[in-house]
UniProtKB/TrEMBL annotation:
Pfam families: AROS
GO MF term set: enzyme binding
Entry annotated with the keyword NAD: no
Presence of keyword Signal: no
Subcellular location: Nucleus, Nucleolus
Annotated Gene Ontology cellular component terms: nucleolus
This protein's encoding gene: Rps19bp1
Family (UniProt): Belongs to the AROS family.
Chief location category: nucleus
Protein name in the entry: Active regulator of SIRT1
Region Disordered, annotated ranges: 16-53, 100-122
Keywords of the record: Nucleus
Length: 140
């Protein structure tokens, strides 16, 4: 610990009114004249004023700061805003927007939709089969 810090600590602990008068005599550093007066002015001020603080600064409450920086849930306001408007974009526009926001990785791509298979039915009718039978087997 430096000597100046020890002196400051002792000045704070001394009784008010007694410490300032005896400190100049004890040290013997303050001379008379302009230089001594300047040193006396520079000396640590009394408990009335703290020069380390910024002028006009207001001490803020830690609780107020916490509440300012605390995360706020905006879900209700956002839902009200979204549900207020009834304009719905067309399906092609929504698909374009989703495609733009999708990444290039395979995991970001939506699964490919399989083409719907039509039920396999015959192209020929019952009459065509009878006609074929008659021609091929020779039955009337």
């Amino acid at each position: 610990m430096s000597a100046s810090l020890v002196r400051r600590g002792l000045e704070l602990l001394e009784a008010p009114g007694r410490g300032e008068a005896s400190s100049g005599v004890q040290r013997g550093q303050d001379g008379s004249g302009a230089a001594g007066a300047a040193r006396r002015r520079k000396r640590v001020p009394g408990p009335g004023r703290n020069r380390a603080t910024v002028k006009g600064r207001v001490v803020k409450s830690a609780i107020e700061e916490y509440h300012k920086k605390k995360a706020v849930n905006h879900l209700r306001e956002n839902l009200k805003y979204m549900l207020k408007g009834r304009i719905v974009a067309s399906k092609t526009i929504t698909e374009q927007i989703l495609a733009q926001n999708r990444g290039r990785k395979a995991k970001d791509q939506p699964p490919k939709k399989a083409a719907k298979k039509k039920p396999e039915g015959t192209v020929f009718t019952e009459e065509d089969f009878r006609k074929f039978e008659r021609e091929y087997f020779g039955r009337p």
